[in-house]
Design brief:
The protein is mainly α. Helices cover 56% and strands 0% of the residues. It is built from four helices and no strands. Belongs to the SecG family. This is Protein-export membrane protein SecG.
């Protein structure tokens, strides 16, 4: 479930990036109104801007919903977390068969 929502979240994020890059800025509207031919577009005279802005708002809403869902799922998972120190294996003890190295003699 987590992976499915994460995949949707990433695809929506990429869609938002693409939609924002496709949209025209505020300054482009003034030039288009003086004979830009925007009335013959697929969406009508103001339809493309309205359609893209509504689609961006919908994608942003889906992005926020998936974000909140991912936080909820991550917060309610029951995993046993261990610290790094607990994960490190203890060094093996020396076997009794291996002779110990004698300590050096210190001159008195």
């Amino acid at each position: 479930m987590f992976n499915i929502i994460l995949t949707i979240h990433l695809l929506v994020a990429l869609a938002i990036i693409g939609l924002v890059l496709i949209q025209h800025g505020k300054g482009a509207d003034a030039g288009a109104s003086f004979g830009g031919g925007s009335s013959q577009s697929v969406f009508g005279s103001r339809g493309a801007a309205t359609f893209l802005s509504r689609l961006t708002a919908i994608m942003a809403t889906v992005f926020f919903i998936t974000s909140i869902t991912l936080v909820y799922i991550t917060g309610h998972q029951t995993r046993e977390y261990k610290s790094v120190i607990e994960k490190v294996q203890q060094p093996a003890t020396q076997d009794a068969d291996v002779p110990a190295v004698p300590a050096p003699k210190v001159p008195e």
